[in-house]
From TrEMBL:
Enzyme class, first EC level, given as a word: hydrolase
Catalytic activity annotation: 3-hydroxy-2-methylpropanoyl-CoA + H2O = 3-hydroxy-2-methylpropanoate + CoA + H(+)
Entry keyword set: Hydrolase, Isomerase
Signal peptide start-end: none
Lineage: Bacteria, Pseudomonadati, Pseudomonadota, Alphaproteobacteria, Hyphomicrobiales
Tagged with keyword Acetylation: no
Name of the protein described by the UniProt record: 3-hydroxyisobutyryl-CoA hydrolase
Family annotation (InterPro entries): ClpP/crotonase-like_dom_sf, ECH_dom, HIBYL-CoA-H
GO cellular component, one term: cytosol
Gene Ontology BP, a term: L-valine catabolic process
GO molecular function term, any single one: isomerase activity
Domain Enoyl-CoA hydratase/isomerase intervals: 1-319
Gene3D superfamilies according to UniProt: 2-enoyl-CoA Hydratase, Chain A, domain 1
Length: 333
């Protein structure tokens, strides 16, 4: 079962709630947490998107527009926004939490951007976040969909503090006592009082190897370097990449390289929206979701099936301007 899967209606509800919280002078801090025990959010309602894509519907166009606008609003929200990234945090859940001003992970955190395995790419500002991770760590996580634990998320700059999950209720209680107008640095100090102080996870030890493999501008070059490296880790990484959508990986790599040279989250979201609409209409997206979510046979038939068969002509529509459909951010939010 999907863990707190977010729908279009939920994005609208969150946006309306932020309207109320922003206007209310008595609201000092916003805390985002997931219902239930399993996690914050495992992403969007991918089955509904798949159904709409099959009939050439417009759910993707509407949902991603409103979701990306909300992602940008969260990053700029004028009051402290504390996200408890406990348990599973994936896809759309990352968009609701990793752009917040104070990001708390736990020993239970399992954070991932696994979209390339669905014929998609890391969206919801994922290209912005991943492009700001140290070295090529973000390229690695974005292309492989590998799960981060809490300290990994700190190291990759997706989170700010590790707090034991057993202490979250006490932290939440402490946050309810914060006075309106309390500076952000004071919130940081409050959270630090509950935190373990961990700053890096297992991926930090892999930094040099990951940089050596992924510091390339082309997917086929990355594959060639991994193939030439006989280590178990390189071969395991190569096997993981072999399961992903070739087109999705090439699109993701280009989006990440463009994001690295982009200053704002909004610019990355505009670029992601263009690519998302193209992906939504593609066979790879429908096939990826079918294999992972609908039939669950884990055996997608990607088109094309090889990275070397992804041509510049295939890629061009993912990065082209889309006229009246371009993503626009409302004034004042």
């Amino acid at each position: 079962k999907a863990i707190n899967a977010v729908t279009l209606e939920m994005f609208h509800d969150i946006d309306k709630a932020l309207d109320v919280f922003e206007a209310d002078p008595d609201v000092a801090v916003i805390v985002l947490e997931g219902a239930g025990e399993r996690g914050l959010c495992a992403g969007g309602d991918i089955r509904a998107l798949w159904e709409s894509s099959k009939v050439k519907g417009d759910l993707g166009k509407i949902l991603w527009r409103d979701e990306y606008i909300l992602n940008a609003r969260i990053k700029k929200f004028p009051k402290p926004y504390v996200a408890f990234m406990d348990g599973i945090v994936m896809g759309g859940g990352v968009g609701l939490s990793a752009h917040s001003s104070h990001r708390v992970v736990t020993e239970r955190t399992k954070l991932a951007m696994p979209e390339v395995g669905l014929g998609f790419f890391p969206d919801v500002g994922g290209t912005y976040l991943l492009s700001r991770s140290p070295g090529e760590i973000g390229t690695y996580f974005g292309l492989t969909g590998t799960t981060m634990n809490g300290p990994d998320a700190i190291y990759a700059k997706f989170a700010d503090a590790v707090v034991p999950s057993a202490k979250l209720p006490a932290l939440r209680e402490a946050l309810t006592k914060v006075a309106p107008g309390t500076p952000s640095a004071e919130i940081d100090r409050l959270i630090a009082g509950f935190a373990t102080g961990e700053k890096s996870g297992p991926v930090a030890a892999m930094q040099a190897k990951i940089d050596g493999w992924f510091a390339r501008g082309r997917m086929d070059d990355i594959v060639a370097v991994l193939t030439a490296d006989g280590s178990d880790l390189a071969q395991a990484t190569l096997k993981t990449l072999g399961e992903k959508s070739p087109r999705g990986m090439v699109v993701t790599l280009k989006l990440l390289r463009l994001a690295r040279a982009t200053e704002t989250l909004e610019e990355c979201l505009v670029r992601e929206y263009r690519a998302a609409l193209e992906v939504f209409a593609s066979d790879d997206f429908r096939e990826g979701v079918r294999a992972a979510v609908i039939d669950k046979d884990r055996n997608p038939k990607w088109q094309p099936s090889r990275i070397e068969d992804v041509t510049p002509e295939m890629l061009a529509p993912y990065f082209a301007e889309i006229g009246a459909d371009e993503l626009k951010f409302p004034d004042g939010k």
